[in-house]
User: Fold this.
Amino acid sequence: MTETPKPARRAGHGEDTIYWDAAKNRYVGAVSMGYAPNGKRRRPKVYGKTKTEVRQKIRDLKKEVQSGVKTPANYTVADAVSDWLERGLKGRDEKGTIGKNRAMANKHLLPFIGKAKLKDLSADDVDDWLEGRAEFLATRSLRDLLAILRRSIEHAQRRDKAARNVALLVTAPEGRPGRPSKALNLEQAKAVLTAARPSRLYAYLVLSLLSGVRTEEARPLTWDHVFLETTEGVPPHVAVWRSVRKHGETKTRKSRRTIALPRQVVEVLEEHKRWQKQERVSRGMDWSPTGRVFTTRSGEPLDAANVRRDFKAIVKKAGLAPEWTPRELRHSFVSLLSDHGIPLERIAQLVGHTSQATTEAVYRKQLRPVITSGAEAMDVIFARPRETTEREA
Assistant:
């Protein structure tokens, strides 16, 4: 039942000033907060249907002032996420980290809790939101979403726009089972390479499958990091020092590595280099001199969409299920080496992991008991007679 307005009176102890505003049909609480730097008196107001509600809001307001934080009344979750994406991730890759987080927030966060005022957001609200998404998203995605919210509120706290981070009180629920990673077996891998032989992606796939480089490491690879001849006792190798990540950095420091190339990779890259020179000459001024090993028909760098599209067509031609992705070539590399008896320590070095534990965690389904070592194992695994086939333009 709503309290009946009474005539204004002198404020009681601890009550500050509370009065009825007939125009707003609300009780108003005014709190004296001293003076601003410009000399203007600070007297924020709160509103409520009852005096009890107003008193509680006054107490909350004073707590915020004492903690040094004054949460803007209309500052929403969407505002916090937007500020974090715009200001909290400066220097990050717009198409990578920022783009991924923005897409996730736009699809799975903002439509559900974006309009909530940040000061009113509760742990229960966050729990309910994540539980609602658990039906549609994998556990990893739910954790990523919660991380976006946590970091957005943390950024708001650093800007004195949030008093506490309720997202820290929440644990992401179990979601839908994620799509399990898988690896090509030897027959499937050979079928893919056979199907790819006439295509411009052939050398890319051979390098990825037989050396284990990441897709984001293969795309920016330049010829000055590829050494196809033995020099001073150093065998042919590729220096994986760059990726398509922000500033060209590899995923981790240990991802920067030099990998000896199997004979078959050397042969394919030599053929690819000759073919690329011919294409560059035929294109003339239309060719973009990027120095990349793998390019489009005009010499421009390949992007992830180019690779996925062409790989999908090759997989179909090989008679395999369409859900295979380019990144699973790396899983296949690990699986084939493990099947061949290469030790886990050596595999971890080849794929650029910081520790064997990482390799075990990421590729546990691909690993087998191990007995020996050697990167040259791929020449044995993919043993074939020398051949040359004309590549399609």
Notes: The first helix runs from residue 51 to 66. The chain has three domains: 17-66, 77-169, 186-381. The domain at 77-169 is CATH 1.10.150.130 (DNA polymerase; domain 1).
